[in-house]
Amino acid sequence: MPGVEALLPRFRAAHTQVLGVSIDSVHCHANWGRDLGGVSFPLLADFQPKGAMAESYGAYLAGAGITDRATVLVDSGGSVRHASSVTPAGERSPDELAALCEQVDREAGTPTQAAPEPQGLGADAVLYVKSHCGFSRRARVAVDNVHAADLTVRNASDDAQALEALRQVSGAETAPCLVLDGSPLAESDVIVRTLAERLAPI
Amino acid sequence: MIAEGTQAPDFTLQDQFGRKISLADFRDRQHVLLLFYPLDWTPT
Questions:
Q1: Structural domains of chain A, with CATH
Q2: Which of A55, A125, B21, B22 could form a disulfide with B12 if both were Cys (CB 3.0 to 4.6 A apart)?
């Protein structure tokens, strides 16, 4: 996946959205993406019922209870243009995947639009977090997955000035809190989705 | 494995950011490359 992440500009130029799929949960995907150095393209949780989406593509290995290492390219008209498997033990070349998408983009003849551009967070954005807080951790994992390295992160647990600033901007001491354009966002689910919409739109 | 030339089945699943994503979201906009893989924390 890091190899694919590095080539996202090529997939983007080929009018192609990359979607990873496995049977893991949303939180498992988020933590794995962070461990890989940040995965900003969607990793889909085919989690409940387990493997149902992969099964519909013939890419679920029911005996092992896992997804095959399979590649399916769907054109913008909804037709399958390529389907292959390298088996779970096999490897894929990100460069060959990008070349495949470029070829189908040239030949598909189906309508495409440019992918949406990241909007950014603004220079004055601040994420307030607290120590030993699972919700704060989720927000920080999302920060890493969308590569928001420039975002100011302040820990209100060990910084009295940060705690006072959090109180002033939000009227509370609840973290995580993402301040965008001067307005506080308080729920970790909302914060995580907003980070994705601003920096990794689809 | 699904056959080339057939219509891809639609789906709606959540991503690592909690967004609900459907194949239909990309209709007439983008091609979609589905990379199935066995499990997180395995090579890609």
A1: 2-107 (3.40.30.10), 126-199 (3.40.30.10)
A2: B22
